[in-house]
Design goal:
With 188 residues, the protein is of the alpha+beta class. It folds into 2 domains: 96 residues, no CATH class; 77 residues. The protein is built from 5 helices and 6 strands, in the order E-H-E-E-E-H-E-E-H-H-H. The strands form 2 sheets. A 3-stranded antiparallel β-sheet has the order 1-3-2. Strand 5 and strand 6 form a beta hairpin. Helix 3 packs antiparallel against helix 5. It is elongated.
Length: 188
C-alpha cells in the first residue's frame, strides 16, 4: 500500500478557500493528510482517517525568494497552535492549517482585515507579475504580426517564428483570464 499520494495540478485556486478546505477535509476523512504544497502538485501522506477542519490563510512577506524567513511568521504559527490550529503545509504566502477541534476559533475573524491581508499577500504581487507578463505577450504578438506583415513568406516558413506566434497567444489568454478572475473574486 502506498503511503504517499500526489495530486497533479489541483484545479483549486487558493482564493477559493471554501473549496480548498472542503477538499482537504474530504481527503483527511479518506486517510490522506496534506504534507506539502508544490508548485504543480499537492503531496499527501497516509494517516488514520479523521474528521478535520482546515483553514487557508495568507502571510505577507513569506516566500521562497525572501532572503530570510518572514518576520513574525513563527509568532503567527505559535498563536495558531495555541488556538488549536496546526500547520499542515505552506507555500510562499499560503499557509494551510488543520484542527481536530470542530469548535476551534477561526484563524481569520475580521473580514475587512482578512481581505486586506489577501490583497497585500497575493493580490499586489500577482497583479504586478501578470501585468508584466501581459506586456511581454502583447509586445511579442505585435512583433510577430509586424513580421508577418513585412515578410510573410520567411516568417511563415520559419518554425521558430510560428512557435513564437502560437505560444504567446494562449499565454496572453491565460494571463488575461487570471487577471479577470482575480478582479471578479475581489468584487465578490
Amino acid at each position: 500500500m502506498k503511503h504517499t499520494k500526489r495530486e497533479w495540478m489541483p484545479l483549486y485556486s487558493f482564493l477559493d478557500r471554501k473549496r480548498v478546505t472542503d477538499h482537504l477535509a474530504d481527503m483527511a476523512a479518506r486517510g490522506w493528510m496534506l504534507d506539502r504544497l508544490g508548485t504543480w502538485s499537492w503531496h499527501y501522506r497516509r494517516t488514520e482517517p479523521k474528521q478535520l477542519r482546515f483553514a487557508v490563510t495568507f502571510f505577507a512577506g513569506a516566500g521562497r525568494f525572501s532572503p530570510a524567513p518572514a518576520a513574525g511568521l513563527d509568532t503567527f504559527q505559535d498563536y495558531c497552535a495555541q488556538a488549536g490550529w496546526h500547520r499542515a503545509a505552506s507555500s510562499d504566502q499560503v499557509q494551510v492549517f488543520y484542527s481536530e477541534d470542530p469548535a476551534a476559533v477561526p484563524i481569520d475573524t475580521d473580514p475587512v482585515a482578512e481581505l486586506e491581508n489577501i490583497r497585500r499577500s497575493i493580490g499586489k504581487p500577482m497583479i504586478r507579475n501578470y501585468l508584466a507578463l501581459l506586456l511581454l505577450c502583447l509586445l511579442e504578438v505585435a512583433f510577430q504580426c509586424y513580421q508577418i506583415w513585412t515578410d510573410p513568406v520567411d516568417t511563415l516558413a520559419s518554425p521558430t517564428a510560428l512557435l513564437a506566434a502560437t505560444a504567446y497567444l494562449p499565454l496572453l489568454v491565460l494571463t488575461l483570464a487570471s487577471l479577470l478572475l482575480y478582479h471578479r473574486w475581489q468584487r465578490r
